[in-house]
Design a protein that fits this description.
Elements (H helix, E strand, L loop, with lengths): L2 H26 L3 E5 L19 H4 L11 E4 L6 E5 L21 E5 L16 E3 L19 H11 L4 H26 L4 H12 L11 E4 L21 E10 L2 E10 L5 H17 L8 H18 L7 H6 L3 H4 L47 E4 L2 E3 L2 H8 L9 H7 L4 E3 L2 E4 L6 E2 H9 L1
Parallel strand pairs: 1-5, 3-4
Antiparallel strand pairs: 1-2, 2-3, 6-7, 7-8, 9-12, 10-11, 12-13
The structure holds glycine (GLY) and manganese (II) ion (2 copies).
Family: Belongs to the peptidase M24B family. Bacterial-type prolidase subfamily.
Keywords: Dipeptidase, Hydrolase, Manganese, Metal-binding, Metalloprotease, Protease
Cofactor: Mn(2+)
Length: 445
Amino acid sequence: MTSQTAAALYPAHLETLSARAAVALERGGFDHLVVPSGTLHYQIFDDRDYPYAANPQFKAWVPLVRNPDSWLVFTPGERPKLVYLQPRDYWHVVPDAPSGYWVDHFDIEVVRNPDDALQHLPRNATRCAILGEAQSALGRYGAFAPNNPQPVLDYLDYHRAFKTPYELAMMREANRRAVRGHRAAERAFRAGASEFGIHLAYCQAVGEDANELPYNNIVALNTHGAVLHYTERDRLPPKPVRSFLLDAGASHGGYAADITRSHAMDRGGEFQAFIDAIDRAELAMCDQVRAGVDYRQLHLDAHLALSGVLNEFGIVTCGAEEAVATGLSSSFFPHGLGHGLGLQVHDVAGFAASDAGGTIDKPEGHPYLRLTRELAPGMVVTIEPGLYFGAVLMEDLAASDNARLVDWDRVDAFRPFGGVRIEDNVICTDGAPVNLTREEFAALA
Ligand code: GLY
Ligand code: MN
Ligand code: MN
């Protein structure tokens, strides 16, 4: 994305945020929205800091992800203010003076010490909705402390699901980067690299260090693909290398991509055919990302479609309906179909019933689903079906009534490959969905 694109789209983004913030403040009965960027956290009994993570409520306004102890102040009807910490420090690199397409839209106060921010914040803390972590408190006895009013958070978080054109452009760019990494990682896999080596090849191609990525890369060879959040990185490849599951994203201006691809070393073998079948099912699911569709239904439909694949490959001996009705499909597809995506890889408010609170429950028997809302234009969701042959779940299945519905020889044939997941980032629109991930893969081809 060019900086002209961002510059062209940013004013309308800021206008949308300002309008949302004005209503949120009204809901909570406050005059000002105040958002600290967050602080550094330290390891216990040590002077080592953890990687800094910007407050998502802060980076929604400005694409700053390396600026702890800065503050955003918004008062309806006034220009937003940014209190920007630029310390005098010879131990660390200090942030550059603010620059870029967004700065002209703010009144900017540069401070040299974190405590100096206080003089630029509204006088009366009780009139402020202050959104952040307790540790950001300033003033005597922490008088200016985050209060995180629920009505304000409910409103902002609910509406954050609907991305502005600026945000969609940022997420497309994050996808573009991640796709570059996926291509490099596949090359490294085919060349025989270890998980650690593939991870390094990925970071190099994306141009991001591990701490800059939106989540910890899942780089899994062979049976490791069955461990849903496998974040070890073996220094040596297994022998032989059969399969590769990569769940890895990228960040751009504070926005995330979240992409998974699965590969078979033998492109002519049965595991490749299994991946292809799941890929076809996944594409059909992505096509259902349409306004008015209940995401819970998409998740349940995914169980049916994946059960069809299990049946087609002779892994289950029953029909797809029975595999879903008995709960058998959950032994192979044990996670949710996906989630909202944006400033956070698992975006907030996935269960929000309205912008004034309330919860839409998960379907019975599906505890790991992260999104239960009805889809609407502007939402970006992941679609990430998977089928796995994990040791724990297969052991539990073997000991259950459903064991009789499984061809265990077929399970044993697939076990050494771990599992398959395919994950795309999809925009819901007024019409056909836009698959950011597929479009960026196609553009790179
Ligand atoms: N990478 C985490 C997820 O797919 O939800
Ligand atoms: Mn993922
Ligand atoms: Mn995901």
